[in-house]
Amino acid sequence: MRPGNTFRDLPGAPVSERFDGGAVIEVGVLARRALRSGRRGRIAAVFERSLYAVLDDCWICIGVKDLGSGPLHLLCTGIEPRLLIPGQEVAIVDTMLLVDGMRFAGFETASVWAPPPSPEWTLDSLRAGLAMVDQVWRHLPVEQGLAASGGAEPPTRPSRVLAAAAPGLAALKRLIEAGLRGERCVPRDYPEIVELIGLGPGLTPSGDDLIGGALVALAGLGRLATRDALWKTCRAHLGRTNEISAAHLQSAVLGFAAAALHEAIDATIGGRVDRIKSAVAVLSSIGQSSGLDAFAGALMVLRAIECRLLNDSALHHAGLTGNGPPTRSIAGPRRSCAATGIGRQVARV
């Protein structure tokens, strides 16, 4: 199914009988895998505006329509997640989502969300974007989680969580920089990164969010070898965190995250300074600190790329390299799910 199409457009899709309950209006690009008739599972966690369920091995987040787009999300109208209870059975029958055998929401006309392709960008646009991010970052409440690590300068008084994360953050920076230099990154050389998994507050701990943001940026900008090295470092240690957070990390390695994170990354690399402040504001509203923590991880990648390109440019102008000045990105294509299939950039998840 191509993003933007509906389940009604699928050849042979059954048409469920009409009902007056909730309706799924949008399905995330990864959540659609869970919506195969016959799948069964359970509700794992319930919140005021959303709930998490797992059907077979597929995690989904079912929420109200203003929750925001995301790869695991089912955005709905006419539902009240808070009325449900963890442990209740969930099942898919035709194009209907059932809870304990009762109709909960239909998704026959739901559209499929996927992030757009990365924009064209240059070193100049990236520098302009990062400069604007730095202006915005100085006025953000970044005391919680690891968001403070996204700034151009480290805080003078790091929080206890940030201090505990310092070795892992330093190791992550080393891995990213080594990968951008084209060096082979071996997981055993970066054991401190593992300490970030499960670290910090939130349903998705801050360390997980930061790693996820880095994975999304690396995947989106075509740095797949570096992305794979980071994933290999983390994959065997997902038991350090909870299942919901692990599901989000598995989405991130595929290059998918909340729409707000993609918007912030794209605005930054594209130098769209008019969009950065609003994009960061939306991220600030996600979770306890999850949105900003994830962007901090992405910013580690973007700052490393900026530094690498500036160094290449300096060497070129000094006559020490024949590669030419880097006026275009070092990016590759991002997430062309409709054309090539989910997971084409991932060796193993």
Mean pLDDT: 86
Radius of gyration: 21 Å
For the biggest sheet, the summary is: 8 strands, mixed, barrel
Please bin the fraction of helical residues: 25-40%
Tally of alpha and pi helices = 9
Helix and strand string, N-terminal first? EEEEEEEEEHHHHHHHHH
Instruction: Indicate the structural class.
Output: alpha/beta
Oligomer: single chain
Cα separation of the termini: 21 Å
- The strands making up the biggest β-sheet line up spatially as 1-5-4-3-2-6-7-8
Strand content: 5-15%
* Unreliable residue runs: 7-20, 322-349
Question: Can you describe this structure in just a few lines?
Answer:
By secondary structure, the chain is α/β, with parallel strands linked by helices.
Describe it for me?
The protein has 9 helices and 9 strands. It has 349 residues and is an alpha/beta fold. An 8-stranded mixed beta barrel has the order 1-5-4-3-2-6-7-8. Helix 2 packs across helix 4.
